[in-house]
Description:
eight-stranded mixed sheet, alpha/beta, 12 helices, three-stranded parallel sheet, 38% helix, Rossmann fold, 21% strand, single chain
Amino acid sequence: xxxxxxxxxxxxxxxxxxxxxxxxxxxxxxxxxxxxxxxxxxxxxxxxxxxxxxxxxxxxxxxxxxxxxxxxxxxxxxxxxxxxxxxxxxxxxxxxxxxxxxxxxxxxxxxxxxxxxxxxxxxxxxxxxxxxxxxxxxxxxxxxxxxxxxxxxxxxxxxxxxxxxxxxxxxxxxxxxxxxxxxxxxxxxxxxxxxxxxxxxxxxxxxxxxxxxxxxxxxxxxxxxxxxxxxxxxxxxxxxxxxxxxxxxxxxxxxxxxxxxxxxxxxxxxxxxxxxxxxxxxxxxxxxxxxxxxxxxxxxxxxxxxxxxxxxxxxxxxxxx
Length: 321
């Protein structure tokens, strides 16, 4: 296992070593969008499978798709598309948006605009290093939006959600989020999450047998609720297991292994799962309303399948046959 956080140059050096010196058979992980983008020349130069379990930047779903790059989470626009569809169906006419200023954040807003038909009163981007949002929160309130859409992953999300709750605006201007209220961050956010909305293809509130088994096993081992990122990584392991079973354990023929991954069948925690032509999932999206509990959070389903068998917006640009 190699950890390189979000440094693109370090990631490229590490993966070059894995491929050329260590001769690894599969590369997995690929958490950060900027890292995945930096690795594109290296991925294109090899047949070694790359299986990403979080990042899904738009270029890699379209013109930069590759037969050896697979994403088990989602294309970055899609959760925001699902939330936009829900808000539009709900009749939200005026919306303010806030997100960190990086590829993933820009993808979220692009996806939101693709499905949201109302007025965006403010479109605010903040630095990835910013940890105080009081000025921005005050600014958006002055435009009288009916709702706020936010995407702040990791510790950024903890700070934003707590500051938004402390501002007192959440009672009158509901908070709609994607990939922000997650896993271990919930304890740090506390009651600030109450009433917020979450859109994703999976949360612990999803009601199917595989999801329930996964949540129970994760909580037993780690003493906390799993995040969607944990679920996508869990699915990545089952994906590879399914592919290797179909090749009878043969991983030396990389092109055959890539084909096996592309057509792999396994029981996903999300229910139905298959790859589209660009090796991104075709899947359902849901909206949940969250409430803090002693065990973590309750994810109440408010719109099951708001987007069904959803194909990302860039698949048509992919040249994989």
